[in-house]
Design goal:
With 96 residues, this protein is an alpha+beta fold. The protein has a domain at 42-96. The protein contains three helices and three strands. It has helices spanning 25-36, 50-56, 61-74, and strands spanning 43-48, 80-85, 90-95. A three-stranded antiparallel β-sheet has the order 1-3-2. A hairpin with a 4-residue loop joins strand 2 (80-85) and strand 3 (90-95). 10% of the residues are buried.
Length: 96
C-alpha cells in the first residue's frame, strides 16, 4: 500500500522488550515507593555498584535515568530525577 503523508505522521514502533533496568529488584522497590507517594521532604534513590551493573548488564546511567523520567511523565507524577556518579557507584535520585 502506498500513501503520501507528512513526516510528522510517520508511525513509530512501540518498544516490545523489557529494559534491563526494569527487570532489577531495585526498580521494583523504587516504583512501589513512588506509587505510594513521596512527602515533600522525602526522596528515594537507587545506587548501582560496578558489580551490580555487570550483573544486570547495565551500561549507561543516563539511559536508566531517562527510563525513570519517562515513567514519571507517563504516570503524571510531579517528581524530579537526578543521576550522578558517586564513589560507591551510579546513583539515581527521585525527589520533589
Amino acid at each position: 500500500m502506498f500513501k503520501k503523508i507528512k513526516a510528522t505522521e510517520i508511525p513509530k514502533r512501540k518498544r516490545t522488550s523489557v529494559t534491563r533496568f526494569e527487570r532489577t529488584p531495585e526498580w521494583s522497590a523504587m516504583r512501589a515507593a513512588l506509587e505510594r507517594g513521596l512527602k515533600p521532604s522525602e526522596a528515594c534513590y537507587v545506587t548501582f555498584t560496578p558489580e551490580e551493573k555487570a550483573k544486570y548488564r547495565i551500561k549507561s546511567l543516563r539511559s536508566c535515568a531517562r527510563f525513570v523520567k519517562k515513567y514519571l511523565q507517563a504516570a503524571k507524577l510531579p517528581y524530579k530525577v537526578r543521576a550522578y556518579h558517586t564513589e560507591v557507584g551510579d546513583t539515581i535520585t527521585v525527589s520533589q
